[in-house]
Structure formats: structure tokens, C-alpha cells
Amino acid sequence: MAMYYATMVLDLVTGYTRALFLEIFDVQAPPFQPDLGYVKPWWDSDATGPDNDPYIYQYVDRSAVPPVLRELEITQKQACEVNIPGKYQYPDYVVTPTRAYVAGPSGNAINLVQADRLSYRNSAEELVDRLQEDVPGLQTTIVEATLDGVFFKIVYELDDPNNPEVNFHENRRLWEIKLGHGGFLNVGRLLKKMAADGVGSPGYFQLRGGNPIWVSDLTLENPSGTLAVLPTPARDLDDDETLIILGVSATPSIRRDLGGGGDGNTGGFNARAMAILEAIAKFLKLNV
Predict the structure, then answer these.
(1) Which of the four, 51, 94, 218, 231, has the lowest number of CB atoms within 10 Å?
(2) Residue 121, Cα to own-chain centre: how many angstroms?
(3) What is the pLDDT of residues 127-143, one digit of tens each?
(4) Residue 129 and residue 1: Cα distance in Å, rounded?
(5) C-alpha span between 288 and 286 (Å, rounded)
(6) To 5 degrees, how large is the angle CA 248–CA 58–CA 246?
């Protein structure tokens, strides 16, 4: 008597899609990193050694005829991290409203300052660092744009003790980056552009016509089957298990020799066969 079942029963760890990862852990899998050069839908929580220490495991080579167990060496760091394709849902970029306004000669409010043009000084400094990283040698200077003059000025705060409900204080300013050729980049607008696909979404600056342009890299998150998949760690075969090719579909499978005889209470299966079926059902999350 023999049983046949899929080679996935040998898997020691679970392989995840992005949807399954989110369903089970209630958190997204980390953003996919195409530059790693491989897809890895599993991780081993027991891989706790130094990052560069070897992690040697065996896996089922399903391309061999018949299938065989082979060894693969990766690092401990690779073993404890997933790299799952698919779009990462980056947080939305939210522009905080402002009550800052442009005032006329008599101090009357003409219109509100556009909130997406405002930013903090430290954001401008971080943006300059990123520009220099992506476009080495780019000449930049941080300046504050202002309408202050005879006719107009920007009001960033009000402090009227007689009318406290209208008081406000705005710490952001109209920071801009002046380029070497004399052009200007509004920091707030550029930060918004960089976050068009969500805060922290991948991309880089590219010089076009003398101006740095933000280029989104989200297309790299869905490789078209060109990257290798690191196989899942597998347990050893039991003495009565054999890897085989099954049926006309040539499906990599496992044959387990069970011996004969039933126990009279399991529909013709012996106790060991039932134990195997229950283990498979548990692996597939079936109710038994």
C-alpha cells in the first residue's frame, strides 16, 4: 500500500504572497528589492547568527527527473528576510493646511498661501543632500522666497489678545532651492512630487535640460518572471518516502510505502496513513 502527495509537505517554512503575509501578520511585507536579484517568499525565524554567516539548507529540486534533495548556501541575513514581489502600499502624502496668508498694503488678507508650497528648513536640507547624491556636482543654494515689499507681505502668525480665535503660528516657510543656472525649485512642491506614489516610494533624480527631475521606480516592483526564486527549505525524507514523477502531467511528488492492513476504524487506511493525511490537512489549513 502506498500514498502519494505533493512535495510541499516537505517544506519546513511557509511561503507567502504579499496578500497572505498581510492577512496573517496584519502588516505589509517589506518593499520588494529587485536589486537583490532574487525572489524569496519565505524566511526562517531560527536564522539568528551574524548576517554574513553561512546558512546551508536542503531543498527539493523539482526540475530534476526524478526530483532530488539538494543543498543551497545563502547568508543568515538572507535566510531571515523575505523579498516578495508586488506593490507596497506606501503611506499617502498629506499636506497640512495653513492659515498663513498674503496681505495687501493695508494688512488685509488677499488670499491664503498654497499649503503645498510650504516646507521646513530641515526638509530643504535633506532634499539638497538627496539631489547631491543622485546628481553629483549639482550647484544648489537654499533660499526663502518672500513677497515682502511695499505692496504685499506674507503673514505667518497672528497674536491678537482681543481676538484669540483667529490667532495662529505657521513654522513652515516658502523654502526654495536655487540652482547654479539661476532656476528655482520649490521644496514643498518637489516633496509632493516625490511622494506621488506614497511617502518613501522608490525613485531618483535625473538631470534633464539642466534641471533635476524626479523619476519613479515603482515599475521595478513587479518583475516579469526574470528573477530566480530561492527554493524553500525542506526536511529529510523518511525511510519509506521516495521522490518521484507522478502521472502523465509529470508532477514532482512523494511516494510513501505504508504497508498493508487497516485498523477497522479508518475506512481501510491504517493509523499511519491517517496521521499523514491529518498532517497534510493541517499544512493546507483544512478542517479535519
Answers:
(1) 94
(2) 29
(3) 999 999 999 999 999 99
(4) 69
(5) 6
(6) 10
To which residue does cell 509529470 refer? 250
Residue that is written with C-alpha cell 491664503 in the block: 112
Stretches where the chain sits below pLDDT 50 are 262-268, 288
Q: C-alpha grid cell for residue 215?
A: 523619476
Q: Check residue 266 and give its pLDDT.
A: 46
Beta bridge mates, 257? 2
Phi then psi dihedrals of residue 21, to 5 deg: -60, -45
Residues 119/173, Cβ–Cβ less than 8 Å: yes
- CA 122: distance to chain centroid? 26
Q: Do 101 and 112 contact (CB within 8 A), yes or no?
A: yes
pLDDT at 268: 47
The whole-angstrom distance between residue 61's C-alpha and the CA centroid of its chain comes to 28
The pLDDT value given to residue 147: 73
pLDDT of residue 109: 87
